[in-house]
# Entry
Amino acid sequence: MNAVLKVCLACAVLMSGAQAQGEPRKASPAETAAIETSEIWAKVRTQLFGQRKIDPNADSLIEFDVPVRAEDAAIVPVAMRTRIIATPERFVSKLYLIIDKNPSPISAIFSFTPESGRADIETRVRVEEYTPIRAIAELNTGELYMAARFIKASGGCSAPAGKDAEAALANVGKIRLRVDREVRFNEPNLVQLMVSHPNTSGLAMDQLTRLYAPAYYVRSVAVSYGGKPVFSADVDFSISENPHFRFYFMPRAAGELKAEVIDTRDKSFVASLAVGERSASAATDAR
Amino acid sequence: MFGKRLPQPAILVLVVLACVCGARARASDDRTAPLTMQEVAAGIYVHTGAHEEPAAANRGDVANIGFIVGKRCVAVIDTGASLAVGQALRAALRAVTPLPVCFVINTHVHPDHILGNAAFRDEHPAFVGHAKLPAAMAAKGPIYQRALAREIGAAAEGSDLIAPGQTVVERSELDLGDRVLELRAWKTAHTDNDLTVFDRTTGTLWLSDLLFAERIPVLDGSIRGWLAAIDELSALPARHVVPGHGSPNLQWPQAMAPQQVYLATLAADIRRALANGQSLARTVETAAGTERGKWLLFDQYNRRNAAAAFAELEWE
# Structure
C-alpha cells in the first residue's frame, strides 16, 4: 500500500522552476483581459477620474517596476519612475497606485511638486491575490497616463500579515529619514523615509473570539524642504508593515528636510534633517 | 476459490492486483490511504514530505509530519497541508497503534503543517501550540486556506483551521504514559511561533521548520532570531533530529551547518547592500546567490527570504 502511494507521489508534477524576474514582461492574453475588463478598476476609474481620458500607453512616461510574482505577499517592492524632466510648466503632479484585488484597491496617491525634481517613488505593498496593478500618472496639465501589469500571488506560507506582530506594535512610531549620498544642490537627491508601524488592515479575524483586530495604519506622509512641500502620500494598509518610501527632493540652498507621518489614531511622527551649505550628513537618523 | 495450479506469473499478477485493489478498497473505506512512515527511533514515526510546492498531485504533502506513541496515548506532530494529508497520517497512525490521540502538536503556523488538523478533530485531542500561534493563525490562516484552494482545488475542502486550546509560553511537558515530551516555545526565528518537541526516551529532537534539510529554508520570522536560535539549538544534545523538510536521518549537530551558512550568507550580503544604499528590489536579485545550487526550490524562495531579511536588517 505504501508502495502504491509512493508511486503516486513520484508521479506528482513538479512545480515549474524559476520565475523570470526584473525585466518587464508582456502580459499574457488572459492577464491583459483581466487588466482591461476589471470591474473594480471601472469603479475606481470613475471615482478618481470621472470621464477624463487616460492614455493607456504610459510606458514612455513611467517606468513601472513590479515583480511577476509577489514572492512574499507582505513585502512586494513596487517602483514608479517618471521619464520626464520636471519643469514648473510641465511636471508629474500625482502618481496613483491601484491594486485591483486588494481589500482597498486605491493603495496610494503620491503627490509631487517641481521641488521634487523627479516624480519617482519606490515603496512596498501587500499583494495577496492574482491581480492587475496599475500606475497612473497625472500631470499638472491634467493629462493622465496609465501603465498596468499583472502580478501573481505567491502561495504556500506567504501571507500579507507581518512576521512578528508583537515586535511591530512595540516599535510603533520609530521613524528614519536619510539621505545616503552627499547632497548636490539643484539636482534631484534620493531620500529614504522609514516608519516603524504595523500598518494593519484590521481584516484578520481571531478564530477564537470571532473578533476583528482594529485597523491601525499610516494614512498620510508629508515631506517638505525649507517649508515647501516636495512629496506627500495618502496611503493605507496596502502599504507593507513598516512603511518605506524612496523619493527625490531638489534643494537649491541649505535648509531643513522634514517629514511628518500621521496614522489612523492621529498620532504624528516627525523627523527632520539639516541639509548644509555643502552637504548633508550621510545616513542621518531622526527618531 | 482459485485453482490450485496457477502458473507463477499469474499468481504474482494476482498478488499485485490484490494489493492494489486492497489499497483502493481501504482508501475508499477510510477515504484515504495511509502515508508512508519511517520509525526513526523507537515509537517515533515520521513521514517525509515531498520537496515540492503544494499542488493537486501531492495534495499538499510537502512537509515532515508524524507521531510519537506512548504507553497511554499518542501525540501527533503536525498534520499536513490539507484534510486529506491529515487523514492519510491518521490512517498510518491507526496501522501502528489503537491508542487514542491525546495531543495534536502544531510546531508553527505554516499551512503545510496545520491544515490537516481537522482529520483528528473527532478523536478530541488537545491541540497544542506556541502561545503566539492563535494570533498567527487568525492573521494568516484564512489566507492560507484560500491559497490552498488555488493550489490543490476541491481537495482543499474541509481543511479547517483549529487553533490550539493548550499553548506554551516557554516550556511545557506532555506525558504520553511512560514517555514525556518536552515542549519549548522559541523566540521569533523561522516564524514568531516555533515550537520544538524533545522526546527524552529516545533523545529525539523534533525541530520541524527550525531545520530545513536539502530544501531552501523559508524565512518568515527573524533572520537574526533564527541565527541565534541555531546557535542555541546546535548545542543541544540529541541522538536523532527531525527537520520540517528533508531526510529525518541526519547527523547532529552537523545537519544544522548548511542552513546556518545560508542564513549567515544572506544576512551578510544584505548588510553589504544596505551599507551601499541599495534598494530592496535590486538586493533580492543577488543576495545569497552563492548558495544557488546547494538547495532545492532555491529560485522559489530565495528572493522572498531576501526581501524579509532586508526589511528586518534595514532597521539595525
About this structure: Confidence is low (pLDDT under 50) at residues 1-30 of chain B. The longest helix of chain B spans residues 8-30. Residues 27-251 of chain B form a domain with the Metallo-beta-lactamase; Chain A fold (CATH 3.60.15.10). The CA atoms of residues 274 and 315 of chain B lie 10 Å apart.
